[in-house]
Specification:
Blueprint lengths: L4 H16 L8 E4 L19 H4 L5 H11 L3 E4 L10 H10 L3 E6 L4 H4 L9 E6 L4 H7 L5 H14 L3 E8 L5 H14 L3 E6 L15 H12 L12 H7 L14 E3 L2 E6 L2 E6 L2 H7 L20 H14 L1 H13 L35
Parallel strand pairs: 1-2, 1-7, 2-3, 3-4, 4-5, 5-6
Antiparallel strand pairs: 7-8, 8-9
Helix pairs in contact: 1-12, 3-4, 8-9, 12-13
Length: 370
C-alpha cells in the first residue's frame, strides 16, 4: 500500500474510537475547496463553470482552518480549482500541518515547481498531482498540449526536494487498460509514493458528457486494469475500494465520510451533487436525508457512481471496523488479489483519438498565484 504506517495508525485509531463510542456517521477526509478558479479548462470538470465573481473568491485562512477544526477528520484533501492559485495556500497548509492532520494538496502541477519554496517537507503534507494517464491521455483530458511534461517536471522537483508526492487519476469510458498499466509503471519508476484512481462522475456542467463511466463499464475496465497487478505498484487507497471497482467487493455510499467545505459552506450531500449548503458541519449531518443517496436509495444521480469520495470512506470503515474487512484487507495487502482466469484479457492497444480542445482564449495558463 502507498500509505505511510503513521497515517494508517492515525486513521485506524480514529475509526476505532468512533466505533467504541457508538458514533454512526463521522468524517474521515475533509474535502476543503478554498477556491474554484483554475488555470485549465478540463472537458470532464464542472467546477470552473461558476460566474466570474465566484471564481475570483479565495477562502480566508481563518475560515479554512475553522472548518478543519469543526470537522475533526484526520485527513484533509485540498482540491479546487487549482489550490496553488490561492495567494495564502501555504498558510492554510501550515495551519493544517500544525494540527497534525494529514493534508493532500491536489494540484495540476503547472505552478508546483515555481511555488515549492512556499512549503516545507513534512510527513503530514503530500502533493497529490493530477495526472490522467500518459502524455497523450493526460493532455487530451486537460484539453491542452504540453501539460503532462510540465506536471512530470513538477513531480520530479518535489520528490528531489524531499516532499511526499502522490498522483490522482480519473478514468473515463475510453480508457485503455494497456496504456494505463504502462502509466502505473511510469509513475512507479518516477518514484511517487502512491497512486489514486477513480472513475469519473457525470458533472452536469462538464463540457464533455459523452465519456462518463456507467457502473458495469467501470467494473469491466478496472478488472482489466487491476487484475494481476505489478507488485511494485502502490495505490494510495484502501484495497477494498480497488476490489469494489472491479466488482469483487460490495460497498455502499457513505457521503458523510468525505464532506466538502467550500466558499458557499458545507455542501449537501457531497461534492459531486449540488443540493444546497449548511452553515455548520453538525447541521450537515443532522439535516441531510442520507437515505436518499447511494445506489440502494434508487436516486438516479447515484446509480452509476462508484467514485472514491462516497465509497472510499466505507472501505476504510470496513477495514478498521469489521473483522471481515480487516482480514480481507490484510490478505490483499500481503498476497495481492487472487488470479482470475475468467477475466476478459486486456484489449490490444488502441489508437488515441485527437484531443478535444477548448478554445485557446478560454484556457490561459496562469504563471502566478494571483
Amino acid at each position: 500500500m502507498g500509505v505511510p504506517i503513521s497515517q494508517m495508525w492515525t486513521v485506524a485509531s480514529y475509526v476505532l474510537g468512533k466505533k467504541i463510542r457508538g458514533v454512526r456517521r463521522y468524517p474521515i477526509v475533509l474535502m476543503l475547496e478554498p477556491l474554484f478558479r483554475c488555470n485549465l479548462a478540463c472537458a470532464g470538470c464542472g467546477k470552473i463553470q461558476y460566474p466570474s465573481d465566484i471564481l475570483k473568491q479565495n477562502m480566508p485562512v481563518d475560515k479554512a482552518l475553522a472548518a478543519v477544526d469543526e470537522c475533526g477528520a484526520p485527513i484533509v484533501s485540498i482540491p479546487g480549482g487549482e489550490p496553488l492559485l490561492h495567494p495564502q495556500i501555504h498558510e492554510i497548509v501550515e495551519g493544517i500541518v500544525a494540527r497534525k492532520k494529514y493534508v493532500y494538496l491536489c494540484t495540476n502541477a503547472i505552478l508546483l515547481e515555481k511555488h515549492l519554496h512556499r512549503f516545507k517537507p513534512s510527513k503530514y503534507l503530500s502533493f497529490s498531482v493530477h495526472v490522467d494517464g500518459l502524455r497523450e491521455e493526460h493532455d487530451e483530458a486537460v484539453c491542452r498540449d504540453g501539460v503532462y511534461d510540465v506536471a512530470i517536471a513538477g513531480v520530479k522537483a518535489a520528490i528531489e526536494q524531499g516532499f511526499r508526492v502522490t498522483t490522482n487519476t480519473t478514468l473515463f469510458d475510453n480508457a485503455d487498460p494497456v496504456r494505463y498499466r504502462a502509466f502505473f509503471d511510469a509513475m512507479t519508476d518516477l518514484g511517487v509514493e502512491g497512486m489514486m484512481i477513480s472513475p469519473g462522475y457525470s458533472y452536469e456542467k462538464a463540457p464533455d458528457q459523452d465519456h462518463f463511466l456507467k457502473r458495469e463499464t467501470t467494473k469491466n475496465i478496472f478488472r482489466r486494469l487491476l487484475d494481476n497487478p505489478d507488485r511494485r505498484w502502490r495505490f494510495n487507497q484502501s484495497p477494498l475500494f480497488l476490489e469494489f471497482l472491479k466488482g469483487d467487493w460490495d460497498l455502499t455510499c457513505t457521503p458523510w465520510g468525505n464532506p466538502t467545505y467550500n466558499v458557499f459552506g458545507w455542501q449537501k450531500p457531497c461534492y459531486l451533487l449540488q443540493e444546497g449548503y449548511t452553515e455548520t458541519f453538525q447541521e450537515l449531518l443532522e439535516t441531510t436525508e442520507w437515505d436518499n443517496y447511494g445506489i440502494q436509495s434508487g436516486n438516479s444521480n447515484c446509480q452509476d457512481c462508484m467514485v472514491h469520495c462516497g465509497h472510499e470512506p466505507t472501505a476504510v470503515d470496513q477495514t478498521f471496523g469489521s473483522l471481515r474487512g480487516f482480514v480481507r484487507t490484510a490478505q490483499l495487502t500481503l498476497f495481492g488479489a487472487p488470479r482470475r482466469n475468467d477475466r476478459t484479457p486486456p484489449p490490444p492497444e488502441k489508437t488515441i483519438p485527437a484531443p478535444h480542445r477548448q478554445p485557446q482564449e478560454l484556457v490561459q495558463l496562469e504563471t502566478s498565484s494571483s
